[in-house]
Amino acid sequence: MKTGRPTPTVERLQRAVQHVQGEIRWGEPLSRILSLQVGGPADVLVVPSDVEDVIRVIQGARSEQIPFVVLGGTNVVVRDKGIRGIVMQLKQLTRIQEEDNQVVYAQAGVRLPRLMQFASGRNLSGMEWAAGIPGTVGGGVVMNAGTRLGEMKDVLSAVDFVNLRGQRVRLNAKDLSFTYRKTMLPKGIVVGAWVQLTLSTGEEVEAKTKTYLQYRRATQPLTLPNAGSVFKNPPGDSAGRLIEAAGLKGARVGDAEVSTKHANFIVNRGTATAAQVLSLIRKVRQTVARKFGVRLQLEWKIIGET
Ligand SMILES: Cc1cc2nc3c(=O)[nH]c(=O)nc-3n(C[C@H](O)[C@H](O)[C@H](O)COP(=O)(O)OP(=O)(O)OC[C@H]3O[C@@H](n4cnc5c(N)ncnc54)[C@H](O)[C@@H]3O)c2cc1C
Question: What's the rounded Cα separation, in Å, for the pair 286 and 266?
C-alpha cells in the first residue's frame, strides 16, 4: 500500500531502513521477483526478518515520509521505471500452525499452496480452491483470491494486521467486506491470517485438490511467465471467452502475448517489457470494447513510476 508521499531521497531512504534486521537490497530489479518477469527496480527491497521487523519498516517509512508497498508478485505488473520508495517481500514470514477447532494460522508470506497442503495433511477441508494459486496468504487476503469453487472470504476468520502507525491489530473477518477479488482493508500490512476449516477425510481433500490442479494444467499456460488472470470476469460472462471471441488469442506486442492456451492470460515469451504488456492490455480492452461493448476491468495491479 502506498502512503502517497513525495519522491524519497537516498538519505531519507537510508534512515528509513537503518534499524531493519532483515535483508536489504538497493536498486533490486523487480523483474526478478515478479512471476511475469517484467518491471524496473525498487529503490530499496526489504525482506523483514519477522513481524517486529515489518513494524520497524513501517515506522521508518512513516518518520521519513517514504512510500512503501508489499509484493508477493503473482498478480502485479511493475512499470519499467520501477518503484520509488520501499518494496517489501514477506518471504521470511512463513510460520504456519494449527490452533483449536480446525482453525489454522498462517503468516502472510506462506504461499497459498503450502497452506492448502498443510490443511489437507491434517484432513482439514476448505482450502482446496487454492491449489495452484501461487500467491501468498497476505496477497490472497488483500485480493480475496479464489476461483469459482471458493475464495478467501469463505474461510477467513481474522486478519493479523499492522496499521500505518505500526500497531498490530486483529481484524475479524465479519467486520470486513469482500467483493470479487477485493477485500476492503484499512491501510497497512497483512502479516497473517486465521482460516476456519472443517474436518474431512484426507482422501476427499486430496481428490478435490487433484481435480483442480489437473484442470489448471489443462487450461492455463503454466510453463511461461505470467501473472494469472489479467481481467476480472464481467457479470455473467468470462473475460477469456470475450477475448478469444474477439480473435485476440496469440496477439502480441513484442514478447508480450495473449496466451494461445487461455485468452485471459498474458505471457512473457522471453524479453517482454512492462510497456509492451501494458500496450497489449490497451489493445485487448479496445478491441473487446469495440466488438462487444464490454469494458474489461483489470484484475492485475499495475504499479510503479510512469
Ligand atoms: C499461474 C497463476 C494462476 C493464478 N490463479 C489465480 C486464481 O485462480 N485465483 C486468484 O484469485 N488469483 C490467481 N492468481 C493471482 C495471484 O496468485 C493471487 O491474486 C494472489 O492472491 C496474489 O498474491 P501475491 O502474494 O502474489 O500478491 P501480489 O500480487 O504481489 O499483490 C496483490 C496486491 O496485494 C498487495 N499485497 C500483497 N501482499 C500484501 C500484504 N501482506 N499486506 C498488504 N498488501 C499486500 C499488493 O501490494 C498488491 O496491491 C494466479 C496467478 C498465477 C501466476
Answer: 16
> Could you give the 3-state DSSP secondary structure of residue 184?
strand
| CATH number of the domain located at residue range(s) 96-217 in this protein | 3.30.465.10
- Closest CA to ligand 1's atom 37: 139
Exposure string (b/e) for 229-252, b if CB count within 10 Å is 16 or more? bbbbbbeeeebbebbbebebbebe
Domain boundaries, the chain: 10-88, 96-217, 223-303
Q: Determine the CATH number of domain 223-303.
A: 3.90.78.10
Q: Are 15 and 64 in contact (CB under 8 A)?
A: yes
The C-alpha cell 529503490 sits at 43
CA of 199 from ligand 1 middle (Å) equals 27
What's the pLDDT tens digit per position in 155-208? 999 999 999 999 999 999 999 999 999 999 999 999 999 999 999 988 888 888
Pocket test for ligand 1, best of 75, 107, 219 (most atoms within 8 A of CB): 75
Cβ neighbourhood burial of 154 (10 Å; 0-12, 13-18, 19+): middle
How far away, in angstroms, is 113 Cα from ligand 1 center?
12
Nearest CA to ligand 1 atom 50: 228
CA of 11 to the centre of ligand 1 (A): 32
Single pTM value for the model? 0.95
According to CATH, what is the number of the domain 10-88? 3.30.43.10
